[in-house]
Amino acid sequence: MNFMNAYRTRAEKLTGTDYHEVYVKAFALYKQIKSKSKRRPYVRSHYFKNSKVFLELFWHHLDQKKWPDRFRRMKYFPCALELIQKSRIKPASKLNPNKSSEILYRFIGMTPDHSLFLVQIKENIRKDQKWFMSVFPWK
Fold it and tell me: What confidence category does residue 3 fall into, taking pLDDT thresholds of 50, 70 and 90?
């Protein structure tokens, strides 16, 4: 992966020392986006020609993780949203080996404090839908 092509966000990581504190902030941001739509919450992406990227799958995916990993990933939620909305940098992409009708995209981002993180988006080719799957810091 080429980190020179990382999208630099203006959004800061969420601050907090415990899971509940960060969860409240992240979910408030999600609820704000959710209130703008009558159906599924989404953000529009510049890279995907202003098409919708749905956010529900992120929360389901997060529920499958253990507490420390949830906490670590949730801190990057506002950075991930900004990257999805504003980035025009080409991500790494590959066909899903488990499902041939899906493409997996991996975007690279950098926070203002120079922390690198990755955002994964899944695209269903047949339905032409994109889903925000995950965000996590680069080790």
Answer: low
Within-domain flag for 86: yes
pLDDT digits (tens, 9 = 90+) for 32-66: 999 999 999 999 999 999 999 999 999 999 999 99
Q: What is the pLDDT of residue 53?
A: 97
Q: Residue 114 belongs to what domain range?
A: 10-137
45 located within any domain: yes
Are the C-beta atoms of residues 55 and 68 closer than 8 Å to each other?
Answer: no
How many C-alpha atoms does 59 have within 13 Å on its Cβ side? Answer: 14
Phi/psi region, residue 4 (left: phi>0; alpha: psi -120 to 50; beta: rest), is alpha
Residue 53 placed within a domain: yes
Tokens representing 5 are: 């092509």
* Gyration radius of the chain's alpha carbons: 14
DSSP E strand boundaries for the chain: 7-8, 42-45, 51-54, 92-95, 102-110, 116-124, 129-137
- Selection from 58, 102, 49, 51 nearest residue 80 by Cα: 58
Q: Considering the entire predicted model, what is its pTM?
A: 0.92
Q: Is residue 3 part of a domain?
A: no
**How many domains are contained in the chain?**
1
